[in-house]
Amino acid sequence: MQHDSTSTDQRLPSNAPEPCDLVVHNASVFTMDAQDTVIAGGALAVRDGRILALGAGRSILARYSADEVIDAGGAALHPGFIDAHVHVSQYTARSVLPLMEGKPITMGHWKGALTPEDEQASALLAALDYLKCGYTGFVDPGTIFAPDAVAAVADQANIRIWLADPYIADRAASLAINLPELASESFLARWPSGLDEALGRLGSQLFRNRDRDGLVRAFIGLYGEATDSPELYQAALDLACASGVRLQEHLGYLPAFQLNRENILDQPLLTYLDGRGFLGPNVTFIHMNLIRKNEIALLADRGVRVVWCPYGQLQMLGRPGTQARMAALQRSGIPIGIASDIPRASAFDGLGTLALCASTAAGDPVAAKEVLRMRTSGAAATVGAEDEVGSLEVGKQADFVIRQPNEAIGFASDPALELAVIGGRHTIRSVFVAGRRTVDAGRVVTGIDEVAVTTQAHRSARAISARIGLCA
Fold first, then answer.
1. Average pLDDT over residues 97-104
2. Fold (CATH) for 81-382
3. How many whole angstroms separate alpha carbon 171 and alpha carbon 192?
4. What is the SS3 assignment for 370?
5. Where are the domains of the chain?
6. Alpha carbon separation from 90 to 112, 254, 461 (Å, rounded)
7. What rounded mean pLDDT belongs to the chain?
């Protein structure tokens, strides 16, 4: 990272201090900008939820008069993490899979039984855990049946949410064939019945983008993994391009399934997609557990972005056909976002460790500084939000985290390792979203009753289990 101990405010000086809402100073500021600038003894000024100025502490304090001034005491200050892909309605289901073993009950039955109240309870519990782990936003790929119920969580918890239309696909039967552990009749009955119904749902959430400063934003999501026809993909891509948003879809989760598709197509899947014009700068693929060396340059040239789910990749490493190349993709210039998918194996603050483990096991190890980028600016780029969040730059949303200065696990010899990998939730002092303090001293301070949220989430999970016959 490029260190800058003399960086100055990016705005012109004035004779009198300029008013603002907040100044944080005496911090090591990790901007995660294109130059990886680190400002020792740095500060930032915030007004109306956005970063007004960024630079050396002495300069910022001299030029701005704030309603609130925070002395960070030498702490690290970095952009908030973003979970680039999570099925948030299933957060309360993270530990139920063992209960399904030996029973004719699948995760599809769980999802088929979800009510709007269940989805809100799950998302609200996840939001509280995210904030405590230094996250300021998360992305659901279009697997929420009641988007309004989950969108309400953004204002309740003061966290950013990116979402898409519910379950866009016109070949749902493909899921039951290729991923039967995720399917059930009740679940698939809630999917579009065909192309016309899928097209009718497409773009239903884009109205959320009218408010540039809103906490909830929308993009176009296809479920993917052969559940969409070429006609649906084309319509989704056209709408994403016309609307200035990204198109996301699952691709390559099961390498064996991808290889079967390629046998039918008689060509590599990415070659086929490129030939149809389906690769481009508005496209993000999720998983990509089968990438050949000669396909990296194609993805980079087309501007495709990739969401990496480390635990999902670890599950695939022992299976035939897997070729994991996330570090190589990152180093080719492709933005990569790290994601939990469904956080069964670790808490949200364990994603950095999972990424190091998965990439090392794949023989393609990432560096800690790359993990830090993947959890911040890279994640923002995969959902098309890089102009607003993911890095600390003048004009962007003031979403940032202050870490405890006395919790330097590695004794400050590798800050990226401490921030993105081994520094857990106990290192979080404060979290700000749009300049508003959301976490203070490790506690969420948005007025939410955490005990009530947890109680409701447990009540919801028990009720779903009872409805699907998972337990009495």
1. 90
2. TIM Barrel (3.20.20)
3. 9
4. helix
5. 2-79+392-444, 81-382
6. 11, 20, 10
7. 94
Read off the pLDDT of residues 387-414 as tens digits, 9 standing for 90 and up.
999 999 999 999 999 998 766 556 667 8
Task: List phi, psi (to 5°) of 142.
Answer: 100, 30
Q: Identical fold at 2-79+392-444 and 81-382?
A: no
Contacts of 102 (CB under 8 A, 6+ apart): none
Residues 141, 438, 76, 125: is their CA dihedral positive or negative? negative
Structure tokens at 357: 């483990």
Q: How much of the chain, in percent, has pLDDT values that exceed 70? A: 95
Distance in angstroms (rounded) separating the CA atoms of residues 228 and 40 = 50
SS3 294: helix
Q: What does the pLDDT look like over 344-401, one tens digit per residue?
A: 889 999 999 999 999 999 999 999 999 999 999 999 999 999 999 999 999 999 999 9
Cα 78 to chain centroid distance, Å, stands at 16
CA distance 173 to 446: 43
Amino acid symbol at 26: N
Residue-wise pLDDT for 124-175, tens only, equals 999 999 999 999 999 999 999 999 999 999 999 999 999 999 999 999 989 9
Retrieve residue 163's tokens: 């979402």
Alpha helices in 107-172 (DSSP H): 107-112, 116-132, 147-157
Does CATH number 1.10.150.530 belong to domain 2-79+392-444?
no
R_g of the chain, CA atoms, integer Å: 22
Long-range contacts of 358-363 (CB under 8 A, 24+ apart): 358/310, 358/311, 358/313, 358/314, 358/317, 358/324, 358/326, 359/310, 359/324, 359/326, 359/327, 361/314, 361/317, 362/313, 362/317, 362/322, 362/324, 362/325, 362/326
| pTM exceeds cut of 0.85 | yes
DSSP state, residue 341: B
**291 near 269, Cβ under 8 Å?**
no
Where do we find the tokens 């002092």? 429
Adjacent-strand bridge partners of 417: none
pLDDT of amino acid 6: 41
Q: How far is CA 464 from the centre of its chain?
A: 26
- Across the strands, what pairs with 220? 247
**At 267, is the secondary structure helix, strand, or coil?**
coil
